[in-house]
Design brief:
The protein is of the alpha/beta class and about 325 residues long. The C terminus is likely disordered. The strands form three sheets. A six-stranded mixed beta sheet has the order 5-6-7-3-8-9, with helices on both faces. The chain is built from eleven helices and 13 strands. Adenosine-5'-triphosphate binds next to β2 and α1. InterPro entries: AAA+_ATPase, ABC_transporter-like_ATP-bd, ABC_transporter-like_CS, P-loop_NTPase. It comes from Saccharopolyspora cebuensis. Belongs to the ABC transporter superfamily.
């Protein structure tokens, strides 16, 4: 009997394919009311993990549960979990409505539900069109409609924005946020943090099958300390004034100073008090995509982004362990 919590729990989950360690000792939880992004480069183990959560791949070790039980022990799973995996295929000659009705019949869901989900995903006007004539974006929506047929509590989506145009991505973002705001659970994978940045609250980042970050996106942003870059008339005098306030200052090759621990107005006030003229000032924006590449650079091998000092050692707060784990 499941606990009805809507929670996905992954504990010590690993999968080997012969010599390939596709997923290594993953631990994370996905809670109702949130959209959790499962992020990592291609080949980092995202699909394998989702397939283990959905009972389609047997783990080498560890467990994945939904509502406290493995997927295969859920009675009538389609009413609890809706899933969209990659490469969904449809009978090209079948209309969208008939495709959904055939799934509805298999799930013991009333036919009327087919029209309801078509409406939900914005395909009502295409109900009578054959799936074979659909664009990639429309096929993605039809896949989502199929996953929604059982009015599930939990949605699991593998790379749903692949092939979507900006309008489709924006639509999906709003849909997923509204779904989660209803107290439901969303786990969505992507190899691009940028595409998910405004959709997800919580992120689990994997690289080479291992967890490299598990936490709130806001905390990830905050972990990268912002810097104020200033061009001063008398850099040495400004450094002395900033040091008096225990601020960290770095000399940049272009002659500017990089100040950590204060925002731009405070640096400007301190410069004014010290009688130092400022010729330029800029607050460095946190570039999440860069952060993502840093975290997963073990996998990219050659990713050339090095910003020593901006990160704590691997294994620090919020991080999954050495090397930095969808
Ligand atoms: N059935 C399989 N047999 C052998 N190796 C596999 C199998 N499925 C996945 N792998 C390997 O496991 C690793 C993880 O693959 P997986 O598809 O889970 O990653 P992914 O992060 O989803 O990547 P992508 O975004 O490219 O699909 C890869 O090295 C892949 O080649």
């Amino acid at each position: 009997m499941h606990d009805g919590s809507g929670r996905i729990l992954v504990q010590g989950l690993s999968k080997d394919f012969g010599p390939v360690h596709a997923v290594r000792n993953l631990d994370f939880a996905v809670h109702p009311g949130t959209v959790t992004g499962f992020l990592g480069p291609n080949g980092s183990g995202k699909t394998t993990t989702l397939r283990m959560i959905l009972g389609l791949v047997t783990p080498t070790a560890g467990t994945a549960t939904i509502n406290g039980v493995p997927f295969e022990r859920l009675a009538n799973p389609g009413t609890i979990v809706g899933a969209v995996l990659e490469a969904q295929s449809f009978h090209p000659g079948r209309t969208a409505r008939n495709h959904l009705r055939s799934y509805a019949a298999a799930m013991n869901v009333p036919d009327a539900q087919a029209d309801r989900v078509l409406e939900l995903v914005g395909l009502a006007s295409a109900a009578q069109r054959k799936a074979g004539t659909f664009s990639l974006g429309m096929r993605q929506r039809l896949s989502l409609a199929t996953a929604l047929l059982g009015d599930p509590q939990v949605l699991v989506l593998d790379e749903p924005v692949n092939g979507l145009d900006p309008e489709g991505i924006a639509w999906l973002r709003n849909f997923l946020k509204a779904f989660a705001a209803n107290g439901r659970t969303v786990l969505v994978s992507s190899h691009l943090l940028r595409e998910m940045e405004h959709t997800v609250d919580h992120v689990v980042i994997v690289s080479r099958g291992e967890c490299v970050y598990n936490g709130h996106l806001d905390e990830l942003r905050a972990a990268q300390r912002a810097r104020v870059l200033v061009q001063a008339g008398d850099p040495n005098a400004l450094v002395a004034a900033l040091h008096q306030e225990s601020l960290t200052v770095e000399h940049l090759p272009d002659g500017r100073l990089a100040v950590t621990g204060a925002d731009a107005p405070r640096v400007a006030d301190l410069a004014l008090q010290a009688g130092v003229a400022l010729y330029g000032m800029q607050e460095e924006r946190v570039d999440l995509e860069q952060l993502f590449f840093q975290l997963t650079q073990g996998q990219y091998g050659g990713a050339q982004i090095q910003q020593p000092g901006q990160w704590g050692p691997p294994g620090g707060a919020g991080f999954g362990g050495p090397g930095g784990g969808y």
